[in-house]
Amino acid sequence: MTTFRVRRRSKWGWAAVIGLAGFATATPSPGSAETPARLYTNQVYVEDATRPTTLAINDLMSVFAFVLGQLPDRVKVYPTENYFYFTFFHGHIRYAGNIRLDVTNRDEGKVHFAYFEDLQEWVPYEEAITHEILDATKGVIVEKLVPLVYRISYGGKSVVFELNDLSNVKPPPGAFGPDEVYLGPIFDESAMRFFLVFNRRLKLFHYILDETVEVADQFTPARETDRILIGKRTGFAYYRDHRLNRKILIGVHGANSRVNNYFDGPFDQLPDNFIEGETLRNALIAIDPKLKGQIDRFGAWPGGEERYMIAPYLMYEKASDLVFFDQCATSRRTPAGEYYRCFSVDETSVKMEPSRRSAQTRKTR
Q1: For the chain, how far is it from start to end, CA to CA, in angstroms?
Q2: Among 103, 123, 292, 335, which residue's beta carbon has the most beta carbons within 10 A?
Q3: How far is CA 360 from CA 9, 49, 78, 103, 104, in A?
Q4: Contact between residue 40 and residue 126 where contact means Cβ atoms under 8 Å apart
């Protein structure tokens, strides 16, 4: 029951957005000392949605200058595929976008920039993302200051982008079984953290919830079994493992997946900065030997338009859709050695991810 799909990475990049909109501020890091709650008001939303705006929306460099100009002098990029997401209103429409410092070419002085009209379920899908790889030929200077810290400059404005350094994040003792290989830490744009693991014997992946830090969600048990826990904020669903003290991601709510928002699952936030050597590529080739010589060490095909999609969880609509995980895990008919197959869903009929999320830029809030 294994789900592995191709992520379509169009020339524009992945794109998705959610949230209130329009302004950027420096914020304390997760896990820092407690601070007063931040208030979000409908007034801000209404005023942003109704305000007449001036922006050359069809001119990518004008939009890039606008975005960079609105940022503080230093920002933190939390997602582990290095996307800095933003939204803004123009012409009474909310736009989403991202600035991405891709691990494969940021040290070459390149940065990806994309924006588009925010996705909504009631609006027919259209491929209308504006994307470009920017560098010195466009007047955009990307400088590496120290590992995982870069300065981007354009038109007299400079912003330092601090990428999320999880190099010291280590799983707790006993987190993995003897057949599992730890591939790296993930910080999803949903603010959830995971450990990506590969089961060498069964040839499947799991996202294990990182509980070494305070988990940024609250859980409610499914009616049918308290082994299944659903996040109140994210809609992420987990199974409490019978064999190890951990929670395995088993579900992402389908509505979030359809609009490609912050809660569509961690498949597009792999631990790019922390993948050691050939570990990920070797795992993918173990699943499909035909991939040998076809993909790079990040699981991408030449040109960067497609990347192997690791999404072993279910796109569910209601909590009862998740019960079969427990039925499989507790069934006497499930061989002991096949237990962890119960938590990897087979959706191979879905072969292509919408190109909205291309490898270059991925989500764009």
Answers
A1: 32
A2: 103
A3: 7, 29, 17, 10, 10
A4: no
**Which alpha helices (H) appear in the chain, and where do they start and end?**
42-50, 60-70, 254-258, 279-287, 323-330
Cα distance between residue 296 and residue 306, in whole Å: 11
pLDDT at 204 over 80: yes
Average pLDDT, stretch 86-100?
96
**Is 138 within 8 Å of 20 (Cβ atoms)?**
no
Per-residue pLDDT, 89:
97
Residue with tokens 């009616």: 223
Contact 148, 162 (CB under 8 A): yes
Per-residue pLDDT reduced to its tens digit, 333-354? 999 999 999 999 963 322 223 2
- d(CA 66, CA 256) in angstroms, rounded, equals 28
Block residue for tokens 């900065």: 273
Average pLDDT value for residue range 197-214: 97
Dihedral of CA atoms 323, 327, 330, 336 in degrees, nearest 10, equals -120
Residue 186 CA, chain-centre distance (Å), reads 9
Burial of 109 (C-beta count, 10 Å sphere; 0-12/13-18/19+):
middle
- pTM exceeds 0.85, yes or no: yes
Core vs surface per residue 113-147: b (16+ CB within 10 A) or e:
bbbbbbbeeeeeeeeebbbbbbeeeeebebeeeee
How many CB atoms are located within 10 Å of the residue 43 CB?
A: 8
Q: How far is CA 91 from CA 54, 129, 131, 243, in A?
A: 8, 17, 20, 54
φ, ψ for residue 159, nearest 5 deg: -130, 135
